[in-house]
Write a structure and sequence with these properties.
This protein is an all-alpha fold. It has 12 helices and no strands.
């Protein structure tokens, strides 16, 4: 903070904080006259924190973030799918659209170029699993590409909801395993510069 001008030091904020945190810090107004800081919980008239108000804030925030669609996913059926635990946890993150893709990392930390490791286009979840030409070549020789194509114009949540309505548990499980295996190959390319031949990937994932 610049004490003389009573303003934030933008150079220091940009050097030490990600864009998301920087925006939140800039929302904090700085008093014109120096004064002692006080803690005040805005959700209680007394200014004191209470567990009740904290829980209410958390509940409302989750409902806003998850939205109505999140409740449309049949989570009981999802958690009962006969797939490895690592695939199940990956799939949950995929449905929430919070995988650490290049684009996500760039937005949160300003690190890297946000590009896909296979084609250099911006790497969003939709790109790495649906739009990337490498992924399209991987899935095209199998009937798995039909499931991928169903979700082309949908979010990850919408895609999974749609598949739950039309596919049996075995097909759903194979689809999620295929997604996980593509993500594994993506990580191998990012960290080890190594990937399988395209024609081996989906058969190996669902065998």
């Amino acid at each position: 903070m610049d004490l003389d001008n009573r303003s934030w030091r933008q150079d220091l904020l940009q050097a030490y904080f990600c864009v998301e945190d920087l925006k939140q810090i800039q929302k904090i107004s700085i008093p014109r006259q120096p004064c002692n800081d006080e803690r005040f919980w805005s959700l209680e008239t007394t200014g004191d924190y209470s567990v009740k108000s904290g829980y209410r804030l958390w509940k409302n925030k989750n409902e806003e973030e998850l939205g109505e669609l999140y409740t449309l996913v049949n989570w009981d059926r999802f958690w009962k799918l006969n797939i490895p635990l690592k695939v199940r946890l990956f799939a949950w993150i995929w449905i929430r659209d919070i995988l650490p893709t290049g684009n996500q990392i760039l937005d949160r930390t300003q690190r890297g170029n946000g590009g896909c490791p296979f084609c250099d286009l911006p790497e969003t979840q939709k790109h790495i699993f649906q739009d990337c030409e490498w992924v399209r070549r991987v899935t095209r020789p199998t009937d798995m590409h039909l499931l991928f194509e169903k979700g082309e114009e949908l979010t990850c949540e919408e895609c999974f909801c749609s598949l739950q309505e039309t596919e049996n548990d075995e097909k759903l499980g194979k689809f999620l395993v295929a997604l996980w295996f593509i993500w594994e190959q993506r990580n191998n390319q990012v960290w080890n510069k190594r990937k399988l031949e395209e024609w081996k990937i989906i058969p190996k994932a669902v065998e």
